[in-house]
Amino acid sequence: MMFKGLEIRPPKKSDSIKAYLDFISELIDENAFLLINKKPTMKEQKVWFKERLSNVKKGKEILLCVWDGERHAGNCSAKKEMWKNDQNVEIGLALRKEYRGKGLGEKLLREIIELARKKFKPKNIYLRVFDENKIAQNLYHKIGFREIARFPNWVLHDGKYQDAVYMLLVDKSRGVT
């Protein structure tokens, strides 16, 4: 699928691991609102990529990757939880700075939610977000996520503790997802 000249697709075995590494490294340099705070090595990135491909193949995860030519611009994932939680799906989104605020994040989230509903038929779709990441929270609210839990002073970001905010996708016609 395309969006404003960008290719959106699942990962391919032939994808450049270096492009993924450059992507996550840039977000870490930016001090973006991510849990990862240390640049992975090429070896660690290869392991991450191999795990993503395996999880996608096994039906445990859906991953949409955004490509601007040879440059990895972002990704959005839906991961099925395990064991007694396997009826729940966690969503994640990350975009390079220059691709934010253009409708791409909303497009990816809506697409991943639709795919997750079809593939996983989840009871709940949720995500976590840093309290100070108001731009992301506004997007999530627009799509239908609502705060259901807050873990005070939970995550250390930029030298201070922030609340971790858990948000649930609310479907007004069915109550929840």
Describe the structure.
By secondary structure, this protein is an alpha+beta fold. The chain has a domain at 2-122: Gcn5-related N-acetyltransferase (GNAT) (Aminopeptidase), CATH 3.40.630.30. The chain contains four helices and eight strands, in the order E-E-H-H-E-E-E-H-E-H-E-E. Strands 1-2-3-4-5-6-8-7 form an eight-stranded mixed sheet, sandwiched between helices. Strand 7 (145-157) and strand 8 (160-169) form a beta hairpin. Helix 1 crosses helix 2. The longest helix is centred in the N-terminal third of the chain and has 17 residues, at 42-58. Residues 173-177 have low confidence and may be disordered.
Helix tally equals 4
- How much beta, percentage-wise? 35-45%
The averaged pLDDT comes out at: 95
Q: And the CATH topology of the domain at 2-122?
A: Aminopeptidase
What share of residues is helical? 25-40%
The CATH superfamily of the domain at 2-122 is identified as: Gcn5-related N-acetyltransferase (GNAT)
Give me the CATH architecture of the domain at 2-122, please. 3-Layer(aba) Sandwich
Global shape: globular
Helix-strand topology string = EEHHEEEHEHEE
